[in-house]
Q: What sequence folds into this?
């Protein structure tokens, strides 16, 4: 009987390996092998005369990105600056919208769909074409005198109008990129037991106090997920100029080695940022859970 069970167990294991074999082969062929070639290429030079062999150069390509190329570092700093401005705005906006959509309001289903539609329609090349047409600045524009009288615009001057238009454009992009985050926050908010809010209201807690004492601690894991997702999405967005610059060096200028080095610099920076954010937020979540447990112990005592 044991022998039959063992044979059945081995058969099930073999069937499992057969089903995952295409995935494993695809991972080796289309992910790990190109990854290895990319690392090797970033430390060398592609010699087309010798049949596309890679000649070892060390860190020359990496030094070129920081010491020779006058475009990479300023562009890199600008992308990082815009990302660290945009990510908090997306998180705050999506959280506020998620809280509002979680309320018992009319047409709640319509509003949930409306906030997610831009994510479905405005991604990839569609988003790039829209930004090339400056749709983000034309949606809420002051320059045409619709929102503010032209006399007032003339008084403030072109610099102020341009700065406000740029700010409005950022707001449009923030709302445009908040669809997934809103849905994740909604799922987290709906998982909070209603009894917690009812007990807090009995104790005389205000909406503001319930937000800081109940809502925010309970959705902190979703907050972590949203921050990591938004960071990665912002750094790898199709409209990101760094990615376009790397692609241009690789497939237009045919400098594959230098493009690979820039790609690995950018990738390692993203990994470091994500790890640091996860470490800080995980520590915050752990401390919040410890404080919550200590308070519950005091109440029970």
A:
């Amino acid at each position: 009987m044991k022998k039959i069970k063992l044979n059945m167990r081995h058969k099930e294991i073999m069937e499992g390996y057969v089903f995952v074999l295409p995935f494993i082969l695809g991972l080796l062929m289309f992910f790990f092998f190109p990854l290895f070639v990319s690392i090797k290429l970033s430390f060398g030079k592609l010699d087309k005369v010798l049949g596309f062999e890679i000649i070892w150069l060390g860190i020359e390509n990496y030094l070129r990105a920081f010491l020779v190329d006058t475009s990479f570092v300023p562009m890199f700093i600008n992308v990082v600056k815009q990302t660290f401005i945009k990510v908090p705005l997306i998180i705050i906006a999506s959280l506020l919208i998620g809280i509002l959509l979680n309320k018992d309001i009319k047409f709640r289903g319509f509003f949930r769909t409306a906030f997610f539609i831009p994510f479905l329609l405005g991604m990839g090349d569609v988003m790039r074409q829209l930004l090339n047409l400056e749709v983000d600045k034309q949606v809420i524009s002051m320059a045409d005198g619709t929102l503010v009288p032209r006399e007032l615009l003339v008084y403030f001057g072109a610099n102020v109008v341009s700065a406000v238009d740029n700010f409005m454009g950022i707001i449009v992009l923030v709302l445009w990129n908040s669809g997934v985050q809103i849905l994740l926050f909604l799922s987290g908010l709906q998982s909070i037991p209603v009894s917690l809010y009812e007990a807090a209201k009995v104790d005389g807690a205000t909406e503001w106090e319930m937000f800081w004492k109940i809502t925010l601690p309970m959705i902190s894991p979703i907050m972590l997920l949203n921050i990591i997702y938004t960071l990665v999405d912002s750094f790898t967005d199709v409209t990101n100029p760094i990615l376009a610059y790397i692609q241009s060096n690789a497939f237009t200028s045919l400098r594959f080695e230098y493009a690979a080095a820039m790609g690995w610099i950018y990738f390692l920076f993203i990994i470091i940022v994500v790890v640091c954010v996860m470490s800080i937020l995980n520590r915050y979540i752990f401390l919040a859970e410890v404080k919550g447990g200590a308070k519950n112990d005091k109440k029970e005592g």
